[in-house]
Automatic annotation (TrEMBL):
InterPro entries: HPF/YfiA_ribosome-assoc, RHF-like, RHF/RaiA. It comes from the Bacteria. SUPFAM superfamilies: Ribosome binding protein Y (YfiA homologue). One of its GO terms (cellular component) is cytosolic small ribosomal subunit. The keyword RNA-binding does not apply. GO terms for molecular function: ribosomal small subunit binding. It comes from Desulfocicer vacuolatum DSM 3385. The keyword Ribonucleoprotein applies. Residues 95-117 are annotated as: Disordered. CDD domains: RaiA. This is Ribosome hibernation promoting factor. Keywords: Ribonucleoprotein, Ribosomal protein, Translation regulation. Signal peptide: none annotated.
Length: 117
């Protein structure tokens, strides 16, 4: 995953960059095609804000997280948010490709339970 990191009202830090790369390289495994991400880290008064725009062939994700603790907590929350959005998109895509039908295995198990009762 190609990640561009921008800092606003905060000093550039290699530790923050490596933390971002560590968190979002894990998400790259969930995507089918290579992705590009623009991450913006900013500080406004007591708020630490992490913002991302993730672009892939079929997926475009925008997420923003704010914390009062520290920037690492904002990055972790942002990573979890993006992970959920990717999983949600993949589930919708899988459901669409299956024609909106449930799997045969699920239907057979439900039928067996109904017969047993």
């Amino acid at each position: 995953m190609k990640i561009a990191v921008t800092f606003k009202n905060i000093n550039s830090s290699d530790a923050l960059k490596s933390h971002i790369h560590k968190k979002f390289d894990r998400l790259d495994k969930m995507l089918d095609t290579p992705a590009e991400a623009q991450v913006v880290l900013s500080v406004e008064k007591l708020r630490n804000i992490a913002d991302i725009n993730l672009n892939c062939d079929k997926i475009k994700i925008h997420a923003k997280e704010e914390t009062e603790n520290n920037m690492y907590a904002a990055i972790d929350a942002l990573s979890d948010n993006v992970k959920l959005q990717i999983r949600k998109h993949k589930d919708k895509q899988r459901l669409h490709l299956s024609g909106g039908k449930e799997s045969l295995k699920t239907n057979v198990m439900e039928a067996e339970e109904a017969v047993e009762e």
